[in-house]
Write a structure and sequence with these properties.
With 224 residues, the chain is of the alpha/beta class. The chain has helices at 31-47, 60-66, 71-76, 92-104, 120-132, and strands spanning 23-28, 54-59, 84-89, 110-115, 136-141, 153-160, 176-184, 190-197, 202-205. The chain is built from five helices and nine strands; from the N terminus they run βαβααβαβαβββββ. A hairpin with a 4-residue loop joins strand 8 (190-197) and strand 9 (202-205). The radius of gyration is 17 Å and the shape is globular.
Length: 224
C-alpha cells in the first residue's frame, strides 16, 4: 500500500479534527523505532486541542522493557510534562481500569496506554467512557492486533526517512512517519505520509504535494 491522499470531499482520518477522534483507537509499530513512532502519533492524537491533563499508562513489565516516558521528547511534541498523569501498574488489567476511571472523571483531554491484549467487553467499556468524556483514547498494542475490538480505528505506524532540509542537504529535515489505517468503522483503508511541524506541534501531510498547495518547506502557496 503506497502513501495516498484521501479525496478532498472527506476528512483525512490521520489528520482528522478532534471531534472525529473521540472514542477508542489502537496503534502499533514494529520494532523499537516503530513503537516510538506509534507512541508519538498516539500522544499527539490524544492530547491535541485540549488543555486538560492527559493520562499515560503502562504495566510495569512494559516500562522495564521500554523505559519511562522521556521528558524532553514530550516537550518536543508540544506536551507539558507537568500536565501529564503517569500511571504505572503491576498488571495490564489495572491499566485498563485506570484508563476507564480517568475517562469517566471527564477531567482528562485523552488517554494513551500500552497493552498487549484486551477483551471485546473491555474495549467497549473504554470506547464508551472516552465518547462520554469527549476524549480520544489510544491503545498502543505491543504486537499486531488480531483480536476483536470495539476500537473505531486501527493504525499501523512506521517510521519514515526525514524530509529534505530546506537549507542544508546534509542535515535532516522534518521527522516523518507513515500512518496506515488498517481497520475503521466507516472509512476505507489508506496510508498517509505525515511529517512533524515544530512550529504548530502537529503532524501534517508530507510537504511537496502540489495538489495540496504546499511547497517543500510546508508553506502554503499563494493564489495571488
Amino acid at each position: 500500500m503506497s502513501p495516498a491522499t484521501p479525496p478532498s470531499d472527506r476528512p483525512n482520518p490521520a489528520l482528522a479534527p478532534r471531534a472525529a477522534r473521540l472514542g477508542l483507537e489502537e496503534a502499533w509499530g514494529e520494532g523499537v523505532e516503530g513503537r516510538i513512532a506509534a507512541l508519538a502519533f498516539a500522544l499527539v492524537r490524544a492530547g491535541e486541542g485540549d488543555p486538560r491533563p492527559m493520562v499515560l499508562a503502562a504495566p510495569r513489565p512494559w516500562v522495564r522493557e521500554h523505559g519511562l516516558w522521556f521528558r524532553d521528547g514530550l516537550i518536543g511534541l508540544g506536551l507539558d510534562p507537568r500536565n501529564l498523569l503517569i500511571v504505572e501498574t503491576q498488571k495490564e488489567a489495572q491499566v485498563l481500569w485506570a484508563l476507564e476511571e480517568a475517562l469517566r472523571s471527564r477531567a482528562v483531554a485523552g488517554a494513551v496506554a500500552a497493552v498487549d491484549g484486551l477483551t471485546l467487553l473491555a474495549s467497549r467499556r473504554l470506547d464508551l467512557a472516552a465518547r462520554e468524556a469527549s476524549a480520544p483514547c489510544l491503545l498502543l498494542r505491543t504486537r499486531p492486533p488480531k483480536d476483536i475490538s470495539a476500537a473505531r480505528r486501527r493504525w499501523h505506524i512506521r517510521p519514515a526517512p526525514s524530509a529534505p532540509h530546506p537549507y542544508d542537504e546534509e542535515a535532516p529535515g522534518a521527522s516523518r512517519l507513515t500512518a496506515a489505517l488498517t481497520r475503521s468503522r466507516g472509512e476505507p483503508p489508506g496510508e498517509w505520509l505525515l511529517e512533524w511541524d515544530d512550529e504548530t506541534h502537529r503532524f501534517r501531510l508530507a510537504a511537496g504535494l502540489a495538489d495540496h498547495g504546499l511547497v517543500p518547506d510546508g508553506r502554503a502557496i499563494s493564489a495571488a
